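Trying the structure run again after the queue cleared.
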Amino acid sequence: MIGARIRWGGTGWEAGIRSSTYCSPTTPNLCGPQLNPTGSPVWTVGTNYSFKVEYTTDGNLFLGVDFNGANGIEASESLTYNFGALNGLGFDYLQVFGNDGTSTAESQVSDLVINGTLIGLLASGGAASTDTFYNDTSGGATPWLITGNLKFITAGTAGENPSWNFNFRSPGTPDANPV
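Done. Tokens:
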């Protein structure tokens, strides 16, 4: 599995590319640098931030977040990581996981579009979480393009609260929604 995570981070926001298998042993679960690792600027509660996650079958995973609100993702707001071992491999499933843990934090993803299909709104709040799987219905494991808006409705706490994860997985994921 590989994926992208966007989270509150306690004092601000953080975003990064992750993998439980393919990252360097010195940085398990984090592949390369993070966006905004010090949490400054902080998220503005109630504001939509557009984001983009894209996996291409040449092994590249892109993550971008328009945290400055300039209506576009600039170079300083994006990361790309090449998973050389995955060159030529597509993933059959996308897992979208929104986790607010046990905090009072609330967040949502709106205007979610996956490979050209409008999904709309996903929300998790308080102790709830959302864990939704989508499968590629094109007849073959294609590249993935995910766009949308992320909003923190109430402030988060330290650690993972709240966070949104976009994870790419291979066969074996049950009950997936087609896209």
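Residues 3 and 167 are 4 Å apart (CA to CA). Worth checking whether this holds up in the mutant runs.
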